[in-house]
Amino acid sequence: PVTIEQRRKVAASCQSDLFDGVVPLYVDTMRDEVNESYAARPTRIYFIGRDGRIVYNPGLGPFGFNPDHLEGVIESYLSDNPTS
Questions:
Q1: Count of alpha carbons within 13 Å of 34, Cβ hemisphere only?
Q2: 3-class SS at 41?
Q3: Torsion of CA 58, 62, 67, 70, to 10 degrees
Q4: Rounded distance between C-alpha atoms, residue 6 and residue 63, angstroms
Q5: CA distance 21 to 12
Q6: What local confidence, expressed as pLDDT, does residue 46 receive?
Q7: Are 63 and 41 in contact (CB under 8 A)?
Q8: Tens digits of per-residue pLDDT, 1-37?
Q9: DSSP state of 60
Q10: pTM of the model
Q11: How confident is the model at residue 43, as a pLDDT?
Q12: Angle value at C-alpha 81, between 18 and 26, nearest 5 degrees
């Protein structure tokens, strides 16, 4: 994508297709400020809690990323932090 609108459209499509629209996604600026701040190369996945704190940081990706471990982290977080 070369415009912020295009980035948002791609993110919305991923959010809908991959997460049934339930998981909020962040779209970085066109200057890639978050990418630069958090070394999101080549892949970086953080799980951010409702309070804005980082719950899960697997390290530089994709090598440190373990989907099975992240699933457990998410389940544990949701169990300890119900929405209602």
A1: 10
A2: coil
A3: 20
A4: 28
A5: 8
A6: 81
A7: no
A8: 899 999 999 989 988 887 787 878 889 999 999 888 8
A9: S
A10: 0.52
A11: 63
A12: 40
| Stronger pLDDT, 32 or 60, i.e. the higher one | 32
Q: What are the tokens at 55?
A: 């719950």
> Among 10, 18, 60, 72, which Cα is nearest to 35's?
60
Distance in angstroms between the alpha carbons of the first and the last residue of the chain: 37
Residues whose CB is less than 8 angstroms from the CB of residue 19 and which lie 6 or more positions away in sequence, other chains included: 25
**C-alpha dihedral over 80, 21, 12, 53, to 10 degrees?**
-10
Q: Are 39 and 19 in contact (CB under 8 A)?
A: no
Look up residue 79 and give its two tokens. Answer: 């169990």
How far is the C-alpha of 66 from the C-alpha of 10, rounded, in Å? 24
Pair of tokens at residue 28? 């970085």
For tokens 């993110």, the residue is: 11
Q: Tokens 């994508």 map to which residue?
A: 1
